[in-house]
Amino acid sequence: MTVARLSGITYYPVKGCAGTELSEATLTRAGLPHDRAYAIADEKGDLRWQGSDPALAVIAPQLTADGLTLRAPDRDPIPADSADVHAWLTDVLGAPSTLVRCPAGNSGRLHVVSRASLDALNRRIAARGAAPLPMDRFRPNLVVDGWDAPHTEDGVARLVVGGAELAFTEETIRCAVTMVDQRTGLRSGPEPLRTLADYRRADGGGLAFGAYFEVRRAGRVSVGDEVTGDA
């Protein structure tokens, strides 16, 4: 049997925007540090999301010891604490936008997707004559490679990876965000929702792909760590 290993760690400093890949991280009971610590609100105060604002995908946040900086194609980077950051976001998104802090604990769960699940989906998409999709369409926090069966993440109650222990909470119900090309910020559906509708309908409604986990034991994790799971 192939040993399952952690093959990707990503956190999203600004909700809905591009992620930052890591080679290692410390998982806390609140999840990945700084994951979705910020968000972008519209003129009513509602948080923007890629389903209605796909251009969020091309905003690349960079979080360092000096603070948060935002980048986007053909624009100068801007610090999050700049007086001009809201005008910058408004220009990128084409509508009034404000950078806001998310409440503490907003990032308490981790989104886990296995490579086997994506490979199985892409085989079905290819059978339709469509192009395969990259993992970033599903915006996972942790990617597991090496499980023999697709959707193993749905059926494990507990995962141990590195020094951390995770507990299953629920399947991830997918939405229109999965139809957004994360590199261009353009909606390019109907995949994967069209194909997921063929075989991944959840009992409670919606289309399931991936799973959410909470951190039961905090610890350090690294790409390459072995992943073990209990049903």
Write up this protein.
- The chain is mostly beta strands and 231 residues long.
- Helices cover 13% and strands 35% of the residues.
- It is built from 3 helices and 17 strands.
- The strands form 5 sheets. An 8-stranded mixed β-sheet has the order 2-1-10-9-15-12-11-17.
- A hairpin with a 4-residue loop joins β13 and β14.
Throw out a few tags for this protein.
single chain, 231 residues, mainly beta, eight-stranded mixed sheet, three-stranded antiparallel sheet, 3 helices, globular
Distance between the termini: 17 Å
Q: How much β-strand is present in the residues?
A: 25-35%
**Strand line-up of the largest beta sheet:** 2-1-10-9-15-12-11-17
Number of strands: 17
Average pLDDT taken over every residue: 95
> Globular, elongated, flat, extended or rod-shaped: what is the shape?
globular
Q: Please compute the radius of gyration using only Cα atoms.
A: 18 Å
Tally of contiguous helical segments? 3
By secondary-structure content and strand pairing, the structural class works out as mainly beta
Compile the SSE list and pairings.
Blueprint: E1 5-11, E2 20-22, E3 24-27, E4 38-41, E5 60-64, E6 67-71, E7 78-79, H1 85-93, E8 98-101, E9 109-114, H2 115-127, E10 142-145, E11 158-161, E12 164-173, E13 180-181, E14 186-187, H3 193-199, E15 208-217, E16 219-222, E17 227-230
Parallel strand pairs: 9-10
Antiparallel strand pairs: 1-2, 1-10, 3-16, 4-8, 5-6, 6-7, 9-15, 11-12, 11-17, 12-15, 13-14
